[in-house]
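BUG: 3D viewer hangs when loading the predicted structure for this chain

Environment: internal workstation, default settings.
Expected: structure renders.
Actual: progress bar stalls at 90%.

Input used:
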Amino acid sequence: MTRRVEVRDLGRMDYKPCWDFQEEVFQGTVKAKIARRNAGLSTTDPGPDGQPHLALPLSHMYWVEHPHVLTLGKSGAASNVVAPPERLAELGVQYFPINRGGDITYHGPGQLVGYPILDLDQFFTDIHKYLRFLEEAVIRTCAEYGIVAGRIEGLTGVWVDPEAGAAARKICAFGVKCSRWVTMHGLALNVNTDLDFFNLIVPCGIADRGVTSLARETGGPVDAEEVKGHMTRHLAELFEWQQVA
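Structure tokens produced before the viewer hung:
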């Protein structure tokens, strides 16, 4: 089966309209799967000719950059926002409790945010494998810049110098939602991010380790379009998808 994925750059977009857009695509994919199930179609059957509403749902990979915003996952603690509301307002930082997993994180200029809306029935029905593939794409992208990154047992995200104990630095955060094997939300990779904004929170609820970016680790600004290209390529290799316009 050919796994078809639309890869699209949304540019810079406010968080709430982007979240609404994700929800619309996500719900459309779920409804398409329910319609196929009710018609007795398998996850590999392309669907009958002349009935495009029963075709296999198209998966999506959206790249976006957000203005300053904090998002709190369902399992997070609001107390991990350490800055008072007036300070957030002064800095122009929005705040949204949202329906993904994970704790508090920051999105902002210079950060590459990725939202895969994938029908995992067309790939594999294993959410842990899904997360490992997302992490692996980040690890491989970091390696393109000579950065040693990896995982830390018991902690979410991708870390630079993961074996360095408290000196390890998080470079990418993850928070996903999956329902009926359709995913949404995703990852946030710090490219040229102003890391001072992470001082507004306890990032992902982890107080004893810091954060970093590709720019900090390489000693200068990094081409964000190049990073996006590396990430897209590594994801396509890992998930074995075919990119469509």
